[in-house]
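Hi support team,

I'm filing this because I wasn't sure whether my run with guanosine-5'-diphosphate finished correctly. The job status page said complete, but I'd like someone to confirm that the output block is well-formed before I use it downstream. Pasting the exact inputs I used:
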Amino acid sequence: VAEAPAAPAAGAKPRALKKESLHVLRKLTLEDVPAEAIRAQAEELRKEQVKGEPAQPRKSTKDLSHTAARSNQEQIKRKEGVVELPSQLSVKEFAEKTGVQVPKIIQVLMGSGIMATINQTIDYETAAIVADELGVSVKKAEASVKAEDIFSRNIEELLKDEPENLQVRAPVVVIMGHVDHGKTSILDAIRETDVAGGEAGGITQHIGAYQIVHTPKGSSEHHPITFLDTPGHEAFTAMRARGAQVTDIAVIVVAADEGIKPTTVEAINHAKEAGVPIIAAINKIDKTGADPDRVKGELASHELQPEEWGGKVPVVLVSAKTKQGIEDLLDAIVIIAETENLRANPKRNAVATVIESHLDKSLGSLGSVIVNTGTLHTGDIFVCGETMGRIRTLTDAHGVKIADVPPSAPVRISGFDDVPSVGDILQVVASEAEARVLLDAVRERGQLQKKRSFVDLVSRLSEGKLTQLKVVLKADSQGSLEAIQGSLAKITGEAVGVKVIHAAIGAVSDSDVMMAAASDGIVVAFHVAVPVEVKRTADQEGVKVREYDVVYALLDDIDALVKGLVEAEEEESVTGHLEVKAIFLTKKNQQIVGGRVTDGVVKRLPFRLMRASAEVGTGRISSLKHVDKDIKEAKEGTECGMRVESTTPILEGDILEVYVKEFKKKAE
Ligand code: GDP
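And here is everything the job wrote out:
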């Protein structure tokens, strides 16, 4: 039995369907009307526009002459002057805006090979051609809200409000720290303290954050607190890299028996860079071997001086297991929140930040947000990142459907046209038309913005608009790390300094790239690998990752950058070639090969893998040996063995073209 074609899914999104059908429409147009004819028509149109003459009916393969039969009456009803149209609009909206009757529009569309119904969405380009055909002058509407305002980087602009409109809002807290130190357990323990939440009934939903109400001991005041329930700094930094500002307080968790670990340092640096106040939670104090005092000492040595030692950082001893100290942690959060004076205006259109998103088979695109300011209502129309929508449902972390969401509260939204990205800013707008206009501007800008960031950085440096070049530094040993960090700190331009925002041993990671992205900085890698997927992240985020092999070259380069003496583009120069003579080991992305330098020198640098004069892959030489002695470089005519990182298996006879990337110095 032949299967019947699948029926459209129940609750399918009308707007998504429209988009699809538009796509089909475009195809139809092209298939039904010979391409030549379309082109000729467009060309004719353009010529007429240039001449400033009204469009004349024209003949084409599909006879369009019927559209020429315009009665004078119709002309009168049409709008005078230039009509503004959004980037996309329905046939109905088009009719309302231009004063032309729907059947007439459909007729013209049909004449152009587009089968449209009254609710069909057409894009501006199509609308403009139809309008011209009908003798209506149109232009593309500009957004009433500035596109740059929606840009996350200007969220401050979006959140601005008159002081008299502002009311206290709940703090939004992120929990960060080393793996297994108890972040998740603390989040669970806090969730369990929320009696009111438990009584609400619903099933706990992980929507990316939850809110509890805390009543400090001996107080009758109820304080709502929002916790991001994706622990760790990855999500936090990804959001910051998008320019989002959603967290007010960072709780750094350190296990009392293990103390500060590399990821703890990373988390501390992320929080410091974000400028959010830190609370230290020393966890697992129930364990034998717990040594909270030692941890306090370690915190102090990372510039987190405990309050009890005269510093600024509240340190709370907790056990997620026995729940000891959890109330104290919440008290500390309430106190910090009060000193931070967190405020928002609940009586305006909402601005919110996406903290999680995914595509659900039955519910469509879902996104969880935390409201920054305003109140979010069901039915609100919004623009969010590069998508838009209308709020169909709002669901809280108890799985309960709610109608309104106040500032600082987390909620899951259904009603997005497309899945939004984490860190995207959601902004409620007045109408669908405004949303479309705004979205257009955002899309245009978004693309430009992503591609330009390093160029921007360089120009801001040379124009003296930046006072600090922020650097995430990765190196192969503690020794080189400290030496480079020390030397970098001494580099200064006229008004620019270098600030190392994070320094650690090991390969460059996504987290490093995101940190640089969030802080408008660069990543400097000394003698360490930059995995392919990390390079991809860096490209996407517009972050420059600079690799170096020699300290003075690194310092020279950064010096030139800080002094505004470099061009934004980099230059590649080939240092030498090596012919592969033997393969000793091939393992995932690590290989050991031997070969002879055919020209120049070969060092621990990136290379292009050449086979029969074609590039077949890339990689990096991570160590060099001559017989069994480590060497820094191999000169022309010598043989060497090397450990190589490359995802492409190397074969005998391949050529490694070894190169360095350098900033292009400005011509004097
Ligand atoms: P995360 O990776 O930081 O989220 O850490 P988890 O919350 O998953 O905790 C890691 C392990 O430590 C788990 O086995 C927890 O049961 C355990 N753990 C967490 N907090 C405590 C605590 O306060 N005391 C003890 N004894 N174990 C804990």
